[in-house]
Structure formats: structure tokens, C-alpha cells
């Protein structure tokens, strides 16, 4: 059962917001946003806007940074060969890229290796280490990986190679015996900020080397302040754009030092000198004809990052690194176009797997009983199942795990996502007797297991979920920053909002709510791929763009009364600047549910024999036949989508009222023709039986009772 989301307004101190509004002369909504983000007075609000609460921390506070810098200095002195080994996601790819560019600048003989997600799997692996030895590599530097590579580092040492690890993942009790293990999450770390991305840690290594060569010191000293500032500024100029891209892509908190990295990096990105990044920005139309207004943390996260991640998911991550390293304009253009094609291929595979997964859900999942979705496929792409798991968890608001096998008895690889309050890693750990390998955290995890263990694992983890997921956890909750009225939608507000950028994890893009809007028009955009929706409220007219909402799948009609969740942004069209509404979600207003309450009560009274049905409520054979025909057509067209009774009865089966429709659904359910789950009185999960037994309507006790045939 997909439960109706609860929308809540975030809480904040109203007196604090009023003080900020008066002191800074900002709009009430802006003051509320600042109060929600922890500002307590004028000083802290100004500090937040000016990013004074962010700081460039001394890289030598990171553990083993001195040892890493000295080892690189030795490598430079001795003309050693370096191998940069990165992870296959956007964080690892960008981190690998900036380190290779850095080592090239120093004149090193440097190579790079990104493991294949499909054949090598995650992390430093022994086969790769042996191949590096054969190539005469002297020093391996990892990016976004390596913190658990105890055995692989031992092997490298045995083969005569040193290892510097740069990582940002959680540490285990035993650290690899490397020359340096740089990780802000080490228990002994003195670094004041632990949420750097993997590319951020690599960037700090570069900063440390620049500062050391400029000052000869292994710390930020007061007397060298200007020299250090120039050295770090040089690092940002050279590598800040790619570092910001990786930080945003890895969904790191945009707080503290990450806020500086993201803000400065986005500004640098608009006029980047990196040919590959510039080509990708042009290919995605984020920067064109000297106009970069579309370029912000949101567009980078939703447009650039998926294209880079797509390469890693489909096993071609080294090509993405190549994009950032090339000096050729032609090669940059070709690689950027190739990445866009890779993303399209990833999207196609994602749709294919999603469709197959939804079919399995209809046949294997009981929405009234099950509290976890565990599925297997024999041809699903390993690199894409995690995205599909995320989509399924978002839709059903249940933890999910999708496991891909290759059609044989070989081991399967799976990926899972969770809901708030349910520790997925703890659940998997409790069932780990069935697994070969697993890892992750409470919100997302990966695993591998043999085909013969799948059924036992599924049964055990589903029982665990049933015992640990309460009813309250099953209802999704989304938060809005403030409730607005039509007169609040102004460029003055979008100007204020822009002062709070960059947005991301920890400083999310503001979400607003507006209630009781009447839909006036629904307009397809780009052949119905997107939808423009017109609204009216108290005589004011508004329009909002609903991107990636196909017009024929929108569950609402003109004249419906709805609430919306939305973002606001400044837009420009033919020289006119205006505030643009970007719709995030639409739901029926409470007044719509109130209007249905009387009909729902009558329906339930009839079902419970409390009252006798009126003639207009009694379904005839023709009514039942008409509903079944149209229901079948609808379910075939809108596969895996809840049926909206309000829209269905007004557009697809006119003349059948709500009460009669509900009674007909009950008759079909009694006869075994369909399965029905009531989500909220308007939305229903309905599936047709695969091969229902042919029965006359008179076999239904309800049909016979309603028609006086008993």
C-alpha cells in the first residue's frame, strides 16, 4: 500500500526570524529560511550569507598528511612512477582526475586505474596491484577508496611499492599499513570537519603539497598567512571546479569547508579552462553563449553527475577520467557526447529493470503484509540495480533490495535502499549467514550471495523488517520550509534565496508549500514529457513547470483543488525576468478528501448493512462489464501505477458514481478477478488476476445482495 504523504512545515523560532527580517531587511520567507538553518541573530545570518561560517582548514591537521607530502617529494626527487587508483563513481573519477593533473604538472610519470564495477568490483584489488608491479610502479595513491585495503597494501609492500591512501569512508579497527592513511574519519584525526568528499581529501593533499613547497612548513603558520593564501587560491584556480563537481555528485553536506569548495568551484566552473568539463557543460547546455545562469549545485547534481556516474555504472569509468585530462578540443567534444549517450543507455536499462521489478512486485509482494521488497533478476545490470532500488523505495516507502544474477548458478550482486528509521546494514548483518560479502550503511548497502541462498535470505530479512518497522514508519513525511501565497512569488524572493546558495545536503534547496489552488490548465511540454500547470487562487493566476511528469500520467484535472510543493528560481524569457515555480509534488487539498468523506461513509454503511443502497448505487451487469473493460484498458496503459478514482470516473468511465464504483471493485475482488488495496479513498492499487476462473456475477454474494437475488 502506498500511503498518502504527510506534508509538514519545518519548525523555527518565529521571534528569531522576525529579528533577522528587521535587521537585514529581507522578506519573511527568507528570514524563516535563515532561522531554520541555525541562524539565531543578525550576526549569524550575515555570517551565513557571506559564508563566514565556512573555513579553509589546515590540511596538515589530517592524519599522515606530512608523511604523504614527504613521500611525494621523494618520488619527485627520484623520478618515480606513480599510479593513481580511484573509485568508479563521480567522486572517485573527479578525485583521480585532479591528482593526475597535479602529478602531471609536477612532471611525474603518472598513470591511473579505475576498477571495472562489473569485473573487478569495489576497492583496491590484488590483481590490479600485481599488474602495477609489473609496470614498474613505485607509488600507489588511492582516491575515495583504500581505507579497508589491509591485505592489498601488504601485497603492494611485498612487491616493493608504497601506498598513500586518501579516503573519506568509515574506518575499521585495523588500518592498512601504508606510508600514509589520510581520512578525516580516522578516530585520531584532528581535522575539524569530517565530511569531505573523496575528491575533497585528494584536493587537501594537493593544497598541503603547495603550501609545503611555498613555506617549507607542515602547518598553517600566522607569519606565512599571505603565502599560504596565495598557494591555496592557486589550488582553487586549478582544481576547484572539478573538486566542486565531485563534492556535489557525492551528495556531501554543503556545510563548513564543503560550502567554500562548492561556492568557489561553481564560480570557477562557469569559466572553466578544463577542456573536458567545458565540453560537458556545453553538451548539457548548462553553459552556452556566455550564459551560465543554469549552472548551480542542483543542475550539477542532476545533470552533470549522472553522466559521469553512468560511465562507472556501465563499466567505462576510465573514459570519464580521460574527459577531464584531455588537451584536445575534438576529443573533449567526443567524450562529452559519449558520456551523454552512456547516460541515455543507463536510463534505458533503468527503465527496463524498473518495469521488470514492478511486474515482480505485483505478483510476489503483498502490500497488506510485507514490509520489505526483495527481488531478483537474471539479466539485470549490476551497475543500475541500486538506482532502481532507490526508485522503488521512494515510490512504496519501503526498504528494498534488488539482486542481479546472470542466469546461471553464479553469485548474485545486490544493492538496497532504506527508509528513515530502519537500519538496512543492521538488517543485512542479522541475515549475513546467507551472504558471501556485504557492506554499506543504514541508508544504503550492497551484498553478494549465491543463487541457492536467495530464498532463505529473502525470508529472513523480510521477517526482520516486519519486526523492526512500525506502522508510523510506513507513512512518508516531506517537509516544506514555508507556506506562501501568490503575492509572495516575486523576483525579490528569488534574489533573497540566491544569497543562501550553494544548496545541497545540509543546506537544501528551499521547498515551499501553497494550498487550495484550483487547476486552470494542463499543458504538455516537449510532446508531453514535461507538464506546465496553470493555477488560480483568490483571483491570482500562477503557472508552474512539472519536469519529468508526463502529461498523460498526471493524476489531476482542470477544476481540481490541490496543494503543491515547489522550488522557486529566477527565469528569463525574451528579456523579461520572473520568478519561476518548479513543482515538486501535487496532492488533493483537504477539501477534496472532505467532499469524498460522505460518499465513503455511505459506501461503508452499505457494505456493513447499516443502510440500504439507493437505486443509483446498485451496479447492473452492464455497469460491471463496462467498468471491467475500461479498468483492463487503464491498467494495461498505466502499468504499475495506482489508479486515481477521481480522474478515472470523470474521464474514462463516465456515468458510474464513486459509491457504485467501490461496490463493483469489491464484487470483482470477491470473484477473484482483481486484487485491490485502498491507499486513501481516492488512490487504489489494483492488479488483474493472471488467469481468473470464469464465474457469473451472481456467484458474488455482494452482487446478489445488492440486486435482491438472495
Description:
The structure is a single chain. The protein has 23 helices and 21 strands. It is α/β, with parallel strands linked by helices and 710 residues long. Strands 3-2-4-5-6 form a five-stranded parallel sheet, sandwiched between helices. The model has no long low-confidence stretch (mean pLDDT 91).
CATH-derived topology of the largest domain: inorganic pyrophosphatase (n-terminal core)
Question: What is the number of helical segments per DSSP (H or I, 4+ residues)?
Answer: 23
Major sheet summary line: 5 strands, parallel
**Strand line-up of the largest beta sheet:** 3-2-4-5-6
Low-confidence stretches: none
What is the overall shape?
globular
Give the overall average pLDDT.
91
Distance between the termini: 34 Å
- Estimate what percentage of residues fall within beta strands: 15-25%
Number of strands: 21
Rg for CA atoms: 29 Å
In the CATH hierarchy, the architecture of the largest domain is: Alpha-Beta Complex
Tally of domains = 4
Summarize the SSE layout with pairings.
Blueprint: E1 6-9, H1 14-24, H2 28-36, H3 42-49, H4 65-77, E2 81-86, H5 90-105, E3 109-113, H6 126-134, E4 139-143, H7 150-158, E5 162-166, E6 180-182, H8 198-215, H9 225-249, H10 256-269, H11 275-283, H12 297-313, H13 317-325, H14 329-364, E7 373-377, H15 385-396, E8 400-404, E9 412-417, H16 424-430, E10 437-440, E11 444-449, H17 454-468, E12 477-480, E13 482-483, H18 491-498, E14 512-525, E15 530-537, E16 540-546, E17 561-573, E18 576-588, H19 590-607, H20 621-637, E19 643-644, H21 645-651, H22 658-671, E20 674-678, E21 683-688, H23 701-706
